[in-house]
């Protein structure tokens, strides 16, 4: 399987599966001297984990990460104060599967002869044969996206040092769409939404805030805690801080379930999703990612254009389309309407519009990068569907009995956000390196 790696200078390799022992993200390119905690990485991972709200799968995976390599185990010399700092070697993050019980494995065993329509189960069986990781769909499960979120968080931390912020939100769900908002408003709303989720997540509070896992613990000590947590999942979930939807709106000024800056639109999205779910079906939507603070000229020509690289987010499960700026809408407008005229204000270039989404010719213009992902409905549904027996090729029918998400949109936005960070940081490495060499050559010539 050679498709589990991304990046040139900032590289990420992922491994594992939905019902294997866990998943792994190995990150290469993290500069030395950074201090990461498992708590802050989990702070992003909890945004996409299952079982968090009424629109996600009831699987109860805590998604608790463990930093395994890439940081100093102790001060390199006495009183150096660099214990737990990154040291420039690959940073490995483990994500153990804790909610992996035989009753759920048996459900897959009972249905794995009949590929689920809309899933990769038929194609992967043909490609990998009977040893295909069909329990939970392996790396074709949405569960693998936890590795992208873990790795992408580290990229966001590096980007932040350069004044670059990446954030995402739900633009549309179940046919309900919110109006366009300025990036400052969206950024602040997503920040508040994340804070709300941190404050109300029982594992964030029980494991990290209360100090059951700390950076000073060794790997095996952390494993002992996680082995105990596996037995306490339901008990810990029961400790979740209780706040009503109205209380959340009043305190955080966000919707309690949908990460959309427009609270009224978010409520309409939730109601539309729930109406479809009651029929046994599922719904899709649109996720929007924005990047602010990028320098002009980030990107490469031809095969490595930045918008083309962002198009690789089609590799996220359930994503069926990626558009930048006006995207597919350009087919219905003229060149005059599509172009983004520019003018100068006190020596600064200002654009009148941003139909290009901040990228022209594969290079950034200095405007906000705007990318949208079309998310298909969850293929696992509670309706009879035609399928086949993949061993006998006989026709049969299938009704979903496994745990499922009514919609995946609410769990895709943090994946898109952090995937975007991986791409941007990789290009920042190239951009800064090229620019440094260009300036050196220019100084030599002068």
Q: Could you explain how this protein is built, in words?
A:
The structure is a single chain. The chain is an alpha+beta fold and 446 residues long. The protein has one domain (5-445): 4-Layer Sandwich (Chorismate synthase, AroC fold). The chain is 35% helix and 17% strand. It is built from twelve helices and 16 strands. The strands form five sheets. It has a five-stranded antiparallel β-sheet, with helices on both faces. β6 (165-173) and β7 form a beta hairpin. α1 (38-45) crosses α4 (145-161) and α4 (145-161) packs across α12.
Task: Summarize the entry for a quick read.
The chain is of the alpha+beta class. It has 12 helices and 16 strands.
**CATH topology title:** Chorismate synthase, AroC fold
**Count of DSSP-assigned helices:** 12
Largest sheet: number of strands, sense, barrel closure: 5 strands, antiparallel
Distance linking N and C termini:
50 Å
**Briefly, what CATH class?**
Alpha Beta
Order of helices and strands: EEEHEEHHHEEHHHHHEHEHEEEEEEEH
Mean pLDDT: 93
The helix fraction, in percent, is: 25-40%
> What is the CATH architecture descriptor?
4-Layer Sandwich
Which geometry do the CA atoms define? Answer: globular
Strands side by side in the biggest sheet: 1-2-3-5-4
Radius of gyration equals 23 Å
Strand content: 15-25%
Strand segment count: 16
Question: Strand pairing plus helix content: what structural class?
Answer: alpha+beta
